[in-house]
Amino acid sequence: MSKEFRFFTYLLESYAQHKGTTADSVLKTLNEKNLTDYVYNMYEMYHTEAITNAFMDLDSLIATGRPAW
After folding, report:
1. Phi and psi (nearest 5°) for 2?
2. What is the mean pLDDT of the chain?
3. Percent of the chain whose pLDDT exceeds 70
């Protein structure tokens, strides 16, 4: 299992707990908005920051359906 996949799983589970939902629900939302690959590929940035920064980015991505850039 790659470090990226392990972190992605951790991120989904942590974000889900933060939001009071399940990782499955978060993944479903990301899939519906075509954001799963984007979030997965953000490993380099997300794993070096405070997890709350990743949570804020996920909130924005889910709300807008697209990356901020």
Report:
1. -75, 160
2. 94
3. 97
Q: What is the mean pLDDT of residues 41-58?
A: 95
Distance of CA 52 to the CA centre of its chain: 11
Which two tokens mark 55? 């949570």
Q: Are 65 and 35 in contact (CB under 8 A)?
A: yes
Distance CA(55)–CA(36), nearest Å, equals 14
Q: 30-38: long-range contacts (C-beta < 8 A, 24 or more apart)?
A: 30/61, 30/62, 33/61, 33/62, 33/65, 35/61, 35/62, 35/65, 35/66, 38/67
